Amino acid sequence: MKIKKIIFATGNEGKMKEVRMILKDLDIEVLSLKEAGITAEVAENGATFEENAMIKAKEIMKMSGELVLADDSGLEVDALNKEPGVYSARYMGYDTSYTVKNQNIIDRLKGKDGGERSARFVCAIAAALPDGRMLVTRGTMEGEIGYEERGENGFGYDPIFYLPEYDCYSAELSLEIKNKLSHRGKALRMMKEELIKLEEELQ
Question: Which of 20, 98, 131, 161 has its CA 20 to 30 Å from the CA of residue 76?
Fold first, then answer.
């Protein structure tokens, strides 16, 4: 049996571009919520990235009857007790600009250097199958919090996320390199392997 269609539970076009780029050789139609005609708001009230991704995937799968992928991602800063974590989007309020959020994190790390500024982006992706099974993958991108915002190619916390081994900020990476290194890219490639195995099982 061939998987013909996947709904990715997002309305974010940038994310859909990344998802399609990584899954393109699977020969599966990948639809956003909007393209699938779904306008649901799912409350993500889990305690972990994995729980939130599973909640979202399961709810949309129940509505659509299709295989659904959903992700939850965020920034963990070790010196701040892994904040903002699962609250990354809600940190300091949904309507607060990321310039303000980013400056707040930089200010809270005053006096800390190098390894004391360690942080990571985390992405969990869940697949909810119509038969009730769930698959979950997790990808991370390790780095440090920089001392200022830099770069034009990212969004959210990208402009303060410094990658020591590349001596640049996440928002300074090209889309191609970012897909290779990013937490979402890693989690998506792992999920792609899971979907290939699933198709083999269904033969």
Answer: 20
